[in-house]
Specification:
With 776 residues, this protein is of the alpha+beta class. It has 6 helices and 45 strands. It folds into 5 domains: 11-122, Sandwich (Immunoglobulin-like); 130-230, Cadherins (Immunoglobulin-like), CATH 2.60.40.60; 233-345, Sandwich (Immunoglobulin-like); 445-541, Immunoglobulin-like (Sandwich); 586-776, no CATH class. The strands form 15 sheets. The chain has a 5-stranded mixed sheet with strand order 19-18-25-24-21, with no helix packed on it. A 4-stranded mixed sheet has the order 1-7-6-3, with no helix packed on it. A 4-stranded mixed sheet has the order 9-16-15-12, with no helix packed on it. A hairpin with a 6-residue loop joins β24 (316-324) and β25. The longest helix is centred in the C-terminal third of the chain and has 51 residues, at 538-588. It is elongated, with a radius of gyration of 62 Å.
């Protein structure tokens, strides 16, 4: 015993191979870009792992991504790690490492100790975004209005963990044609048209798209977007020359074809891909045009009727119109000046007194808006100027009115000015009206590039945490605001831009991130977005969380309390029912004796009892005792009316009666009906040898009393039989409780450890007058 205690003390003092600071697991954090062969960390274990030390360290397996340097506690990396398990170089390393280090105490036979070691891999920006479905192709019509979304669904995925390393920003790399298309939002892969396209200038071009993450350093990838420009009917027909001149013959008769300079009147569709045919007509309804006719298909001009010598003494101007046959809204105009041969007038005049033109506000600078024409189109002495000097326009020497500055519908939607033609001696003036057409060329603009709000500790639903200020430069456009993002469900935004708290229960963090989106009412609509951050005090979100937890605990406690009450009620009902059944059993117990007596009477034949019970029978002088063990007597206590005796007991009774060992007390004229069957506790026996045929000591030492309630000290009462009853003493009558004449002041309980021996065969008057005692 002393040696055992000594060993236990030594075992307790030996703390080798245990981790310091009473730790059970060693944990290391390592970046996934750690080089192979680098030391991850040193295992803080009690003991010296060197060659001469008192412990040795090793791994339980050899297939780990780490190892322990011999003679040290340093854990070294043997295989590359990868937090995402999908490295770009194709080498997939483990995203976490869990090993077990085996520590062996030197100099002892103690079993080794296995120390769990967890190595957690931290994410680094080692993956670049990858475009899905690249390269991309876009077919776009040249009539698409700038600002229209032309392509959605461009997406790049970064394999790094959620956070800055996997947040992708999109852009178009600067270069040729980059001014045509850009991303509507850097965080969304939606492309929009930035500048008007023209099929006649460019039919196809390529753009380079870039997707980069927010890591440091940044990782990016590129994809190619091929844009095919589809020709559309966006161009009016055009004449080959701006103006034409013809001279009437000396005798202008009907049917003569006029010679036009500088060439025949011809027009073509500027939409090269469509090249729709055109039809020629005169636009003027004046009297002068009635003398001429134009072929709708060829444009040839002839004299419709003979012109009198008194007509057309002055030059006249005819306006020729070329209209697309498939689209009447597309047409072009030119002028044809007709004069008589040998007739000249020096009066300078504009062909039209008023010029009107409608121009989109995004019309490119240096575009020709219209051309003013005089009756001297070839006169080099004629000059044009603008006396009102509008800053947006200038007029060329040939009468072309060109745009020199951008138009703005929001500033001025109509311009009226005059143009003057002069040859140095004569002047003429015409009015010009320019109608500016609105274009949705402004994106909604937020006041700040991002919004950061801090909610007060007393904030509640329907409270305003801040205002999102946004405006649109297009006149008449209305801006509507919306919210996007995972935390957008907790807020709503009003028409005025107030950010209102709607439901704080959906937030799982004290910082809410969402995106505010502004959309205008222009055609097509434009939109923009900014990130919004709302910070909540921790105590503002805490009570609701604790309240939810308390409510859950109350519900669980209520369910358990209900189950407990149900169990208590069920147990109470069962106890009440059990007590009622016991009371009913006690009330029915007096009838049990009669049942037992009837059963015994039917079990022993009368002949055998009467044969050995005559007055002259030698066996009549002996008192037989019958001992019945309760183990062979089964009574159904629930019914209280059934008693059974085993087959062995019945055979024993019958055999005793046959060989004369069982005496019939009726042979001596005894009245069993007036006698009582005394219990073994109240009977006095004087053993005097063995009963004939019944060896001494055959009665078991333990004799049980026939009693339902031992704890109430109820003893068996006497069994009384009526006079002349022929049944055996094995048929007792059992009574519950003492009767009025059966109370005994003194009762002696038999010692269960003392053997009871049957009475001797010697008869006596006292025994013959005593009732037969039956032991159960």
């Amino acid at each position: 015993m002393l040696n055992m205690q000594t060993r236990r003390r030594q075992w307790r003092r030996d703390s080798r191979c245990y981790l310091r600071e009473s730790s059970s697991v060693a944990t290391f954090f390592v970046r996934e870009d750690l080089e192979v062969g680098a030391v991850i960390g040193s295992l803080q274990v009690v003991g010296d792992p060197s060659e001469r030390g008192d412990i040795s360290l090793s791994l339980d397996r050899g297939d780990y991504a780490v190892t322990i340097q011999p003679g040290t506690s340093n854990i070294t990396l043997t295989r590359a790690l990868d937090r995402e398990s999908q490295a770009l170089d194709g080498h997939d390393g483990p995203s976490s490492v869990a090993v077990r280090v085996v520590c062996k105490r030197k100099g002892t036979s103690d079993p080794s100790i296995k120390i769990p070691v967890n190595i957690r891999v931290q994410d680094v920006n080692d993956n670049a975004p990858q475009f899905i479905g690249a390269p991309y192709t876009l077919n776009i019509s040249e009539v698409t209005v700038p600002g229209t979304v032309v392509l959605q669904g461009i997406k790049a995925v970064d394999a790094d963990q959620q956070g800055p390393f996997s947040t992708v920003h999109y852009s178009v790399i600067e270069g040729n044609y980059a001014e045509y298309i850009d991303f509507a939002n850097g965080l969304d892969g939606t492309l929009r048209l930035k500048q008007q396209l023209d099929f006649e200038k460019v039919q196809q071009f390529r753009l380079t798209l870039r997707a980069e993450d927010q890591g440091d350093p940044v990782k990016s990838t590129e994809a190619v977007l091929t844009v095919n420009v589809i020709d559309a009917d966006d161009q009016n027909p055009r004449f080959y020359d701006d103006r034409y001149v013809t001279t009437l013959p000396r005798r202008p008769v009907q049917g003569n074809t006029l010679t036009i300079r500088p060439r025949r009147v011809r027009a073509f569709d500027q939409d090269i891909g469509i090249n729709a045919p055109v039809a020629y007509t005169f636009t003027a309804d004046g009297a002068d045009s009635r003398y001429f006719a134009i072929d709708p298909e060829t444009g040839d001009i002839t004299i419709a009727e003979t012109i009198p010598d008194s007509e057309l003494l002055q030059p006249i101007t005819l306006v020729v119109k070329a209209t697309q046959q498939d689209n009447g809204d597309r047409y072009a105009l030119t002028t044809l000046t007709v004069r008589r041969e040998g007739v000249f007038t020096d009066e300078l005049q504009f062909v039209q007194g008023n010029y009107v033109a409608s121009v989109l506000e995004n019309r490119p600078v240096n575009s020709v808006i219209l051309t003013v024409i005089t009756n001297r189109p070839g006169d080099s002495r004629v000059r044009f100027f603008l006396p009102d000097e509008p800053s947006q326009f200038t007029i060329m020497r040939n009468g072309d009115l060109a745009l020199v500055d951008s138009l703005d519908y929001e500033t001025q939607d109509r311009l009226n000015f005059s143009v003057v033609a002069t040859d140095g001696r004569q002047n003429d003036t015409a009015m010009v009206t320019i109608i500016v057409l609105n274009v949705n060329d402004w994106d909604p603009r937020f006041r700040h590039p991002s919004f950061d709000f801090v909610a007060s500790p007393s904030s509640r639903p329907s409270d305003v945490v801040g205002r999102l200020t946004v405006y649109d430069g297009d006149r008449g456009d209305r801006v509507s605001l919306g919210l996007m993002g995972q935390d957008a469900r907790a807020f709503s935004v009003s028409k005025e831009g107030d950010l209102v708290i709607r439901d704080l229960s959906v937030l799982n963090s004290s910082v809410a991130h969402l995106v505010a989106v502004a959309r205008d009412s222009g055609v097509p609509p434009r939109r923009s977005s900014v990130p919004v951050t709302v910070r909540f005090p921790q105590e503002l979100l805490g009570p609701s969380t604790r309240a939810e937890s308390s409510l859950l605990l109350m519900i669980i406690f209520g369910v358990l309390l209900g189950v407990l009450i149900l169990v208590i009620v069920t147990l109470a009902l069962y106890i009440c029912k059990y007590k009622k059944d016991r009371a009913r059993t006690r009330r029915t117990s007096p009838a049990l004796g009669a049942k037992v007596a009837s059963y015994v009477n039917n079990s022993i034949p009368h002949e055998k009892l009467e044969a050995g019970s005559g007055p002259g029978s030698p066996r009549a002088s002996h008192l037989g005792s019958l001992v019945v063990d309760l183990d062979t007597l089964n009574v159904d206590r629930s019914l209280g009316t059934t008693a059974t005796v085993s087959r062995g007991s019945r055979r024993f009774a019958r055999g005793a009666a046959a060989n004369g060992s069982l005496r019939n007390p009726l042979a001596n004229g005894g009245d069993l009906g007036s006698r009582s069957l005394q219990s073994s506790a109240s009977s006095t026996f004087k053993p005097a040898g063995s009963v004939a045929g019944w060896p001494e000591g055959s009665i078991p030492k333990r004799v049980k009393k026939l009693s339902w309630e031992d704890e109430q000290n109820r003893s068996l009462r006497s069994v009384r039989y009526p006079t002349g009853h022929v049944k055996t003493p094995l048929e007792p009558t059992i009574q519950e409780g003492p009767g009025p004449q059966e109370h005994h002041a003194e009762q002696t309980e038999l010692d269960p450890d003392v053997s009871v021996t049957p009475l001797p065969n010697t008869p006596s008057a006292e025994l013959e007058q005593s009732p037969v005692a039956v032991y159960f």
